[in-house]
Specification:
Elements (H helix, E strand, L loop, with lengths): L9 E2 L2 H12 L7 H16 L3 E5 L5 E5 L6 H16 L5 H11 L7 H19 L1
Amino acid sequence: MKNIDLSEGERLSREACFNHLYVTFTPSLTENEEKIESFKSKIWQLINTGVIYGLRLDSYKFILMFNQNKISKIELYDLLCEVYILYFSESISLFAFIKAIYSLFYHAHKSLTSIYDSIRKHKSKIVVQSI
């Protein structure tokens, strides 16, 4: 992903961030209403606490970001693993989930494969610890 000038961006509303995330992942969500409501709640919690925010770069392009002042890399991997396991592991592959995350969020100097490999390794640790 090429470097983007973030200083030009206008902050998106919380509703716009929520809608973009929810609409993107809706086709892959389970039909279980409790899980859907839980997923919505988790997204709102992340947006309202400032962990996730969005920037509009121009009239057609916007990106979502994880606030590095509020979440560390390890916590981010924990979060992504948890979200995948709770809401998407039955319907899509980890690679498809990471590909969607990669397309939505800005990560300077990170490739899709490096993010996938990091999260896959992290997920393995979580699964081993829970046994």
